[in-house]
Amino acid sequence: MARPPITDDELIARYGPHLNEAPPGGWNAGLAIDKVVNTHCCFCGQQCGIKLKVHDNTVVGFEPWYEFPFNEGKLCPKGVKRYLQGGHPDRLLHPMERDATAPGGFRNITWDQALDRVVSAIKRIQAEHGDDAFAMLSGVSLTNEKSYLVGKFARLALHTANLDYNGRFCMVSAGTGNKKALGVDRAPNPWSDIPLADVVWIAGSNVAETFPITTSYIWRARDRGAKLIVQDPRVVPLARTADLFLPVRPGTDSALFGAVLHVLIERDWLDHDFINNHTVNFDDAAAAVADMTPAWAAGITGVPAARIEEAAELWGTSATGMMLHARGIEQHTKGVDNVLAAINLGLATGKFGKPGCGVSTITGQGNGQGGREHGHKCDQLPGNRDITNPEHRAAVAKVWKCDEADIPGKGLPAEELIEAIHDGTIKGLLSICFNPLVSAPDSNFTREALDKLEFYAVIDFFLSESAHHADIVLPGSLHEEDEGTSTSGEGRIIKINAAVSPPGEARLDWQILLDIAQRLGKSEYFPYTNTEEIFDELCRASTGGTADYTGATWQRIEDEMGLFWPIPEAGHPGTPRLHEGGQFHFPDGRARFHAVPYKLSAEVVDDDYPLLLTTGRVVSQYLSGTQTRRIAALVAQYPEPLCEMHPNLATPLGIADGDLVTVTSRRGTITLPAHVVNTIRPDTVFIPYHWPGDKAANQLTNRAVDPLSKMPEFKVAAVRVERAGGHTATTDARDMELHGDQP
Ligand SMILES: Nc1nc2c(c(=O)[nH]1)N[C@H]1C(S)=C(S)[C@@H](COP(=O)(O)OP(=O)(O)OC[C@H]3O[C@@H](n4cnc5c(=O)[nH]c(N)nc54)[C@H](O)[C@@H]3O)O[C@H]1N2
Ligand SMILES: Nc1nc2c(c(=O)[nH]1)N[C@H]1C(S)=C(S)[C@@H](COP(=O)(O)OP(=O)(O)OC[C@H]3O[C@@H](n4cnc5c(=O)[nH]c(N)nc54)[C@H](O)[C@@H]3O)O[C@H]1N2
Ligand code: SF4
Ligand SMILES: [Mo]
Q1: Which domain holds residue 386?
Q2: pLDDT tens string 451-462
Q3: Based on the structure, what is the number of domains in the chain?
Q4: pTM higher than the cut 0.85
Q5: Substitution candidate for ligand 3 out of 48, 205, 479 with most atoms within 8 A of CB
Q6: What is the distance between the alpha carbons of residues 406 and 389, in angstroms, rounded to a whole number?
Q7: Which atom belonging to ligand 1 lies closest to the Cα atom of 231?
């Protein structure tokens, strides 16, 4: 029997009467707090509310922000520890130029020298090779204001078509699928719909590690009796409690979804009214799955036919249901197909536009939602407009007060842009908030590309592995040093507040862009004195687009703890749930079914490379790791990449847990400790990708991209695994160099 909790009296009896008294000087003795700032986590797309404690212009700690409705004070390990990065000794404090003779390979220079070098390189390269030979890469850890500014800066100051962003590796398959099927690219539901679902289906997401706060929404649904389906090659933590686990072979989700639709049709678990009144193309989608029986799909996916039928029954017979999918189904050369096949299941059963119903991507990056709306994608203008559409261009040109012809056309998506650098077409690059050397597929190829650049400038607050290859490094701003807005995975615009100002000579990111624009003689387009002015312009530029922010103001966002777009006019309450009344964002108001035939992944297993590699994340590290690899407590949780493999694979290869293994693909090789676990398909190995150099999973991955979204195939590569003849029992953070990672 559990013992009752110890009482205060017992504690006092044991330790004396002073136990519950404040220490001399009060609880905060030795650490005065000047202010506490309400803001949001700088990491994932959940954008949890957090309060930062500030002393002496340094973030020294945090407090939970219980009132913020999304996370109600809850945080994951990264949110708890994020405050430790600000005071890190690696923080870039001065502009630098590459100098092989200087310690660390860089020497400090003045801002004038640095900006002059950047601008003269832009001018020289563009004069010699054309405007598009100078490219820009951006990222969506940036606020909405900065994302918008980057889009305008690249088009009007650099006058290059070649701007793209790191969401190309993250959200684009979902975005393309959403637009094709639903006409709009946003999660259809606020997360408060999850607890109302009778069935929650997680397809290709390790929610407990990557979106930890979403777990609590799923628990609330479970408390009401909801069934949980998890579809993943690994028995991820959430799957351990699932009613139905679908252990899908990497790269085969569209076969599984197709078979589920096949069963829904066969058993008539369809919402005919919804299909007839609110959709088109059902017959095409149905014809495409006519032969996709569960028995057929079982052979392809490795999921037993009975489980596929059970999934169809749970989904098809429940009154409400939500499917949440992430990069597990999206980072494929058929990522868009997978998303369309998932949406087909929602449309077939009428699970859109009602409480507790929806098929939704879970947005990954901090501002992965907002950052894919405001025009720093290669094919996009603000308001999620199409850069090739003359009407869209004219609308934006009006706000930008430029000639429509001055806005360049469609540029290259990120991976093709890196390939154009490699083949010499693109000669110069400015990057902000992107670390492609770690995060792009085939890192040996990416490294060659970066080294071929005639000029490379990076804006970052740490010397990322990519920045090691730069000619000029400009010290930009951390999340807590600037204010603005971001849009969470729910579609909720929230306010980011500055807690401190940039240290040393570091500058706010947006001011650096304005400095460069000014030196390029383009100041007239960038008259801003603060980021709220950028936001106001962004809202105007979004008017009439699908991602319509017209009625948003910083004040309202703060007062109302966020606003869901579209907000088409001043005073509009915002739109938490899309598609209510079965209305979709097409002229006829109807959603589109798509015929999704099954296709193979770009690489299939063979004698030389008989196993499937898939890659992803662990809870304590974030993306390319530049930030989280510098936070000791997070490193201690998972210090280095491990190769997850099943005992049925490991044992015949003579591999025990902790042994070093070498994993080889057609592009590269990596040696790392094995993590032998029962929770992965025996034909698959998994490596997290947050580490650089010889620990980089992306040495192995494939540059093949989805034909529509241009998403690389991070989730499938053919590999072989061998014992490397060594054992490491040391996964001890104390052995690791925490201050400064090597290139
Ligand atoms: N801790 C942490 N959290 C993060 C991030 C981080 O770096 N660290 N990054 C944020 C960002 S930007 C993103 S994009 C998200 C990503 O969030 P998730 O997509 O949840 O994360 P991943 O680990 O990339 O992949 C998810 C799952 O896909 C599975 N998977 C692999 N191949 C397949 C397949 O072919 N089919 C199916 N069905 N599943 C497959 C993997 O086993 C893995 O469990 O996380 C966000 N949150
Ligand atoms: N193998 C494999 N590769 C993957 C994935 C995978 O699942 N498997 N996932 C892909 C996904 S989903 C993603 S999102 C990408 C992410 O890939 P990246 O975008 O390259 O990763 P980040 O770590 O966010 O790199 C951003 C850089 O920007 C800096 N930074 C962060 N915030 C700011 C800011 O506010 N201002 C400035 N100036 N700099 C900032 C950071 O210090 C870091 O150096 O990786 C992709 N790569
Ligand atoms: S769940 Fe995401 S936003 Fe929330 S604390 Fe963790 S990393 Fe930050
Ligand atoms: Mo991502």
Answers
A1: 96-169+367-571
A2: 999 999 999 999
A3: 4
A4: yes
A5: 48
A6: 14
A7: 38
